Amino acid sequence: QVQLVESGGGLVQAGGSLRLSCAASGRTFSSYTMGWFRQAPGKEREFVAAISFSFSWSGGRTYYAGAVKGRFTISRDNAKNTVYLQMNSLKPEDTAVYYCAVVPRTLYGDPYSPGAYDYWGQGTQVTVSS
């Protein structure tokens, strides 16, 4: 079983920045894909960013939604089993509950799809005021 705990959400003015963290526990991963999704009231959950990593080839790959590319950066700290989402130049339309999710193995599916992920965190609220 894997547990994911998000933190770092809050209230920020438009143009500001926040950094979200997602700490994983429960097992170790030799390969994984960890993603961030968000859900605003009345809307479907949507993909934000994801990062894939494998110790076997010490490589990683990142994926971004078009709406956040150039403003958000996903990164990892394997020693801490933590993935971060640095969010800059925030806009009111970024307001949502942000969830992290993980596939604790090599992902052969679509990293943009919520259905590809096995475990989810409880979410953290991000509110951007205009």
Structural class: mainly beta
Series of secondary-structure elements, N-terminal to C-terminal: EEEEEEEEEEE
Largest β-sheet summary: 7 strands, mixed
The geometry reads as globular
Number of alpha- plus pi-helical segments: 0
Overall pLDDT metric: 93
Helix content: under 10%
State the end-to-end CA separation. 40 Å
Radius of gyration: 14 Å
User: Which stretches are poorly predicted, pLDDT < 50 over at least 5 residues?
Assistant: none
Give the total of beta strands.
11
Strand content: over 45%
Record keyword descriptors for this entry.
single chain; 130 residues; mainly beta; 7-stranded mixed sheet; 4-stranded antiparallel sheet; 11 strands; globular
Write the layout of secondary structure elements.
Layout: E1 3-7, E2 10-13, E3 18-25, E4 31-39, E5 46-54, E6 59-64, E7 72-77, E8 82-87, E9 96-103, E10 119-120, E11 124-129
Parallel strand pairs: 2-11
Antiparallel strand pairs: 1-3, 3-8, 4-5, 4-9, 5-6, 7-8, 9-10, 9-11
Characterize this entry briefly.
The protein is mostly beta strands and 130 residues long.
Structural account:
- By secondary structure, the protein is mostly beta strands.
- Helices cover 0% and strands 53% of the residues.
- The chain is built from no helices and eleven strands.
- It has strands at 3-7, 10-13, 18-25, 31-39, 46-54, 59-64, 72-77, 82-87, 96-103, 119-120, 124-129.
- The strands form two sheets. Strands 2, 4, 5, 6, 9, 10 and 11 form a seven-stranded mixed beta sheet that branches.
- It is globular and about 45 Å long.
- The chain starts with a strand and ends with a strand.
